[in-house]
Predict the structure.
Amino acid sequence: MISEFDIIYRYFTRPSPAAVLGIGDDAALIKPTTGMELAVSTDMLLSGQHFFADADPRKLGHKSLAVNLSDMAAMGARPRWATLALALPEAIVRADEKWLEAFADGFFGLAHTHQVELIGGDTTCGPLNICVTIIGEVAKGKALRRSGARSGDDIWISGHLGDAALALAHEQRRIVLEPGEIAACLPALDTPTARVQLGQRLIGLASSAIDISDGLLADLGHILKSSKVAAVIRMNEINCSTAMKKHLPQPLAIKCLLAGGDDYELCFTAPKSKCGKIQTLSRELEIPLTRIGRIGEGEGLAVLDAEGKLLTLETKGYDHFRI
Ligand code: ADP
Ligand code: MG
């Protein structure tokens, strides 16, 4: 069976010219660019909890980095370096090095796109667990935080929401999607696109930002709590795919849209005065950016349904939207 060191050398050691020292010593060395702060974030993917045990390794490699890139996007940071802690079941290593090859391919494919260097990690034997730490850079004092939303700000989202949750619901046989719909929704679940460029361009425009990993309601809720403000959003303003539109207003589709998670889109707030610039940015990056509501004073998140009726989301009602 291939040794731990052979795995590291064969599959995970690549040049890392932007680091002072990469893989191979007890620690990597990095030097932040002058005038920049480091942004550091970790996300773990667990077999059985975040993906099915038989998931395609190439897609897993992609997703394990993508979910971390998304955290950098939410801070407005430029991702630079990553570390990868891997627990691998003996069966994977013994039976099939193809798994490692495909995983590394998926990981490095996306890393290459964003010029992210893998500079270290840990490799051990155990139930499949993939933990990536990402390190990015952002100009001093400029990072987008959850705490900056102010009363009167618009609430924006990128892309469309709910497709990943719809695809998951289909795989779990809780909803039936047509072949064309599943083909359209599955990439959002398997190979999400982190809004890395958008995040960096929102510096100077957005007052707060978060990436939507746990569902719009929960994640916008984090902005509201951190910023000590309230919000009203309109459900029919939330941009969604043709597949989602077809299944709305089925309760499960509403749940996927509002609380599904795994979207990896950005939710951000911005003063009204930035609206034109944000629309221009949307056209330039070819990423839909839509206003879904407004920040107000006080606390709580009100959602208006398609008829303009209020859905109550406070306390227990809020759980109702969890899936
Ligand atoms: P140590 O015994 O000091 O923990 P290791 O033998 O675990 O060192 O790792 C040797 C080198 O390989 C280190 O530079 C470490 O960061 C790197 N490394 C280990 N596993 C991975 C991995 N899965 N991906 C990238 N680098 C790794
Ligand atoms: Mg180690």
